[in-house]
């Protein structure tokens, strides 16, 4: 049975990975859609940041909230999830050398996701859903807004099942034997988290959709918030598991790093699975209705299971890189392995910066603000976006960008255009995000609220005095956003030019049978590509 | 024993982890200090 698919594979000239061509096409469309979402979300981001900078104050109030909604959805959901779908395909087919069981099913779920994303974006930009990313009731959007999100979520859920079916096929048909590689294992953990997340999303958005259509009378806001964060924060834990998997993968591809103790790393992934979803309660630390015991147990205790997982990875990955570098002869002093690392490789630089920003910025601020008492000081201030921009943007997005520099030649078979620009891209983006988040965090410490069009209340009768330092910090936010946006544009430009105009790398078509059938490497005509 | 040492030799990473740990302690303690100054016990 499996031998029927032998002619549908090509061998990557760089990595030797066997790539199933139907999976490659799906990978391509998912990745391109992700970058388009990133660009849309990025344009929204710079407009919002220039509005929060009091000296510029670019947008009128209605557009500010509309674009903030679009920014949240495109960045936190569409860019990241489409990219993760590409990651699922890569981890289950190319890494395992397996075929995709049902390419038509992959196209079905991609179409559902695309239609969902288009409907949601359309409703937002038409002004029918100025409810922000969280859409807390009693804010009510047009029913099609919720429908779009539901369609997107159903498509994603089907893609998760397709991923699991591919893992089964890989074992059953003998494409892969033994335990799954660490990258695939990490992505599997992300998929399990995704299934939980999407079910929580369904439990939240389905009744909200019925309410928006007028079929039910109301939604309990407290229940909505509990359900929404089961979806909204768990979605970020999918990103976390995917990002860490990518760190391991890039470590291996760039310097040949091998995890120093793979079982230990797998155990750390399991801690994500066990601890992270309940820790979503940290969004509800100041909500009424939940007991202090419930809130504190879930955040100040269970949250640390996930934190310990991240700390293990944060030790394991640099250690693996150090061991690999020392084996190459970079043994002088304490840090020659680090100074002689391939910093000119944008994938390595992006991965390293992502680890530093996530660990020193996102991790420590997250753990600190997840404590109930401290959360009371930081809740609903700009400190919160200051935290998650160094987590999801400086961490996850930068790691995804870094992987793209490998993926373009590897999966898309195109030579990278603008290699010299690519070398600087991770640095520009990382510096911009760090400046922006610093501005956000300190403005938040000085009391500046988040999600606010005009904190000076310039046209109100009563003025709200903020210190000059707070205004300076908001200016820093704007400056950082300009630098980060420049990095984002460079990335999108390189990705788009390479994907559409990069010099084609000819496919190395080789018959690929599962090992139990026997390798036959007789070349077949490239015309079959 | 010597073999074990060769198998895992990453002193630079240990230093990096300690730098991170000190940074975390400073940030965490500063936040509790700020809380104690802003949240008076009566």
Describe this structure in words.
The complex is a heterodimer of chains A (529) and B (42). Chain A has 529 residues and is mostly helical. Chain A has a domain of 157 residues: Four Helix Bundle (Hemerythrin (Met), subunit A) (Up-down Bundle), CATH 1.20.120. Helices cover 68% and strands 2% of the residues of chain A. A three-stranded antiparallel sheet of chain A has the order 2-1-3. In chain A, strand 1 and strand 2 form a beta hairpin. In chain A, helix 1 runs antiparallel to helix 15 and helix 4 packs antiparallel against helix 5. The radius of gyration of chain A is 23 Å and the shape is globular. Chain B has 42 residues and is an all-alpha fold. Helices cover 81% and strands 0% of the residues of chain B. Chain B is built from two helices and no strands. The mean pLDDT of chain B is 82. The chains are: A mainly alpha (529), B mainly alpha (42). At the A-B interface, helix 9, helix 11 and helix 12 of A face helix 2 of B.
Strand content of chain B: under 5%
Order of helices and strands of chain A: EEHHHHHHHHHHHHHHHE
* Most residues in contact, chain pair and counts: A-B, 25 and 20 residues
How many strands appear in the DSSP assignment of chain A?
3
Gap between N and C termini of chain A, in Å?
21 Å
Radius of gyration of chain A: 23 Å
Number of helices of chain B: 2
Query: What order do the helices and strands of chain B follow?
Result: HH
Regions with little confidence, pLDDT below 50 for 5+ residues of chain B: none
Task: Show the helix and strand layout.
The complex is a heterodimer of chains A (529) and B (42).
Chain A (H helix, E strand, L loop, with lengths): L8 E3 L6 E3 H32 L8 H34 L8 H23 L17 H30 L9 H31 L8 H35 L6 H14 L16 H10 L1 H25 L8 H4 L6 H24 L2 H7 L4 H28 L8 H27 L22 H34 L6 E2 L20
Antiparallel strand pairs in A: 1-2, 1-3
Helix pairs in contact in A: 1-2, 1-3, 1-15, 2-3, 2-4, 2-5, 2-6, 3-4, 4-5, 5-6, 5-7, 6-9, 6-11, 6-13, 7-9, 9-11, 11-13, 11-14, 13-14, 13-15, 14-15
Chain B lengths: L1 H6 L3 H28 L4
